[in-house]
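so my prof wants the structure for this chain in the tokens format not the other one, which i didnt know existed until like an hour ago. anyway here's the sequence
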Amino acid sequence: MTLFTKIIRGEIPSVKVAENETCLAFMDINPLKEGHLLIVPKVEVDEFYELEDRDLTDLILFSKKISLAMKKTFNTRIGMWIEGLEVPHAHIHLMPIESGRDFIFDYPRLKLSPAELSEIANRIILNL
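here's what i got, hopefully its the right format
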């Protein structure tokens, strides 16, 4: 069982932004930038192309909905990145961006408290 499955099941705490029958959006606890969040399918598969077409479609459309709320929240472009190296569970990174360099995962991560992550999540939730 992956870390993300444990988050989906509520066994590990997370700062949730949105959820539906097939997907969950939650704040990245080691964000590259303020507003960096993850979208995961509730079905546990390692790589996104292993998802059934229906589940992949749901994941992308759910990500679009979250991206539109993020765009209103941060008033900038929202980038999407699928890399799947850190956790063996398909996932999408969504993040406010200004350039392609914003998705360099070797950059130092922000140190945000749970309260700060919750405040950012609540700003996004208001725009859903």
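also thought this was worth mentioning. The two ends are 30 Å apart (CA to CA).
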